[in-house]
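Task card 7
Instruction: Convert sequence to structure tokens.
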Amino acid sequence: MPDVTRKILWSVLAAGTALTCLSPLSARADEQPSADLLARGEYIATAGDCVACHTAPGGRPFAGGLRISTPMGDVITTNITPDPEHGIGRYTEEDFEKSLRHGIRRDGSRLYPAMPYVSYSGMTDGDVQALYAWFMHDVKPVAESPPVTELNFPASLRITMAAWNLVAGAVPPETGDSATFDKLRRGKYLANALAHCSTCHTPRNMMLSEKEDSYLAGAPLLGWYAPNITSSKTAGIGNWSEDNLVQYLQTGHVDGLSQAAGPMGEAVEHSTSHLTDADLHALAAYILQVPAKDDAVEHTPREQVGKAVDTPDIRTGVLTRIDSLDEMDGAHIYDGNCAACHGSDGAGTSDHYAPSLFHNSVVGSARPDNLIMAILSGVDRTTGTLHVHMPGFDGNSDVQRLSDAEIASLVNYVTATFGSGDHGVTAEQVGKMRAQLPKTP
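Output:
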């Protein structure tokens, strides 16, 4: 498939995730819904993680304005508050349902397919109704319009999405009351319809629709890599217990296993950490029984790689000038920027706030993508009262701005010393991933 075609298709997909859970369009219902229906709608919105894409940094909830870079231009998310002029206040419930489950706006135009209507198509009628009621009655209207997304041709032609929909398929809609589903059925519903796990974790074919035979087997995502989360004991999370996975979804961290950053960190902060224990156990139980898919790259359980290292003190007592332009090797970069928190031996802090770098699925992975992106963009997530923060080291860093070559050296040192080995990461590779970082609005 020509690269330009692939870029166009990927742009279409990437754009859609950010463009809308919906799009501005029909009339508010006048009848006040019950408190139970509104509470259910709020919970559905949380499980679907609508706020993550439709709230700009420092912006008002659901007012849009988040800017996401794609190869075909910047996507700016829309206002989905119930404001009648700037948001979705003129949506009817029928308009809402068509957008949510079919990707068709009130004016008949198409949403871009990475807006996960392919997954939301599986929602029950009752949950769609509750979600609509909550947006229309409990979300505060915001009378402002973000800038309009203007992608390069041909990604700007929404009509092309009709053809994509013919080959992409959709999750069949569930029936009945989703709150009464048994554990595994509820878990499947959460994974496939509301939380849309496969949108990130399932690889795509040449047409960029999900490969049904590789469900949750891992896929690249805007510089990050959404890992294999099937029951494979070597490539996936088959060695995790249900409680391990529940803890990860609640907090974004499990000692000796992994920690969430990037898109998954956002999903934990805004969505999964707010789900009930019963739903988290249902989701975990379902995911852990997904048939194993082994990997051509991952041959050793990521979380079992590495050990503490007794490293000699490489400091000589000779002061290094802050304006020195001499390039440091990976060991010295680690000592100057990482060892204070993660330890010279890689064991992290005693309270695990700064995680161990060995027995860590990011450092133990045969793919260095997520380690590179974490160093570039940092980690910033809040669950409950705990705020976890690691500064990024990209060009906007307030701590230390590292060059592409320095980050490549650091990654190779960290994986060689504490993880899966020196991957020979290059400055060029880091530069390409740096270009995929979100732009500051």
